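REQUEST FORM: STRUCTURE PREDICTION
Request ID: SP-0412
Submitted by: Lab K.M.
Chain count: 1
Length (residues): 416
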Amino acid sequence: MNRKRIVVTGMGTVNSLGLNVSEFWEGLKAGRSGITRITNVDMNDSPSLIGGEIKNEKFNIEELIDRKEARKMDRFCHFAIIAAREAVRDSGLESSNTDKENIGVIIASGIGGINTYYDNAIKMYTDGRKKVSPFFIPMLIPDIASGYVSIEYGFHGPNFAVSSACASAGNAIACAFNHILVGDADVIVTGGAEASMSPLGFAGFTQMQALSTHFNDTPEKASRPFSKDRDGFVMGEGAGILVIEEMEHAKKRGAKIAAELVSYGVSGDAHHITAPCPDGFGASLAMKNALDKGGIDPKDIQLINSHGTSTPPGDLAETIALKSIFGDHAYKLLVNSTKSMIGHTLGAAGGIEGIAVVKMMQDKIVHPTINLDNPDPECDLNYVANKAVSCDITYCLSNSFGFGGHNVTLVFKKYE
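STATUS: Completed
RESULT:
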């Protein structure tokens, strides 16, 4: 008996480059940066003042979600709902007769409602317990985005969240893949959402010396993966949601199939709570597991959509991992970083970047890694520097790695 094949039938996103998939993809192809000075929140004395921020004047949530309901949700949940609506609409599920008991929702977040936590902690400290919102807990918890999407559409299938730091959305997609494979659902709405741009979030990351601080006056140049002068990641926000589905089910209902999700690999670094293995072992193991699980020859891979955060140790470790797995073929790969344009969206990254991968396959265009004018000599692969290239891609890997040593590799294939 042949194993089920799983395909992508819908996509939706909000991020600093676009409030939908079309805007996002046009920005990626053009090599346009979505990173700016932060204006939505007071950054106080933060040494990092920039981010891949979704501007409030463009994303007026009260025009998109009922005002009363919107006030009961954290910003990360707003992002998840809007992206999920686009993905569900794109998939055609709203007009299909699919049994809603067989449609699940698995939406990840690395942090959840940090803005809610910050605001209510201040209220508790200054004004006492009675000023804390009665919605504080449901606004805070990472799983609430999955809950809201499930309620909105009446989807009764598997429903939960995954939280594994910056690998969260990748893990959610892998979980969704497995639930379809074993028959728990025919369709799952999956991906991730994050809204961690609060003074508290910035304080935490800057105290770790993880964020870029040298480009406050030129924010569009700050995220520079694989560059010799990279000085840390740039925080981003948003959501990336995919509808994945058992292929025969998708074909029977006449769904538009965008790509195939072939396999995934996961691993743990077992090394350090924040730093990657210097030799890239954990990352290479995730990629190896993904290739082995999918029965794919490493030489068949053409593109790596890298984790590529713009941190000195992370980019080097990923480069070493790619050489470990692919050997001489590593120098024939195209390797790019979506984060060079939108920053690091943390728990949403795997979902947003999964959409980028599918669009690259559909349009046969590999988006660039921008700001790569001064490559790190130790990062010596083809990172598609500064300008998009044409390529008919059959197989692509998408990498996501997170604090705690969590590694996920997703394998996408052109649908044929």
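NOTES: The chain has a mean pLDDT of 97.
Reviewed by: T.R.
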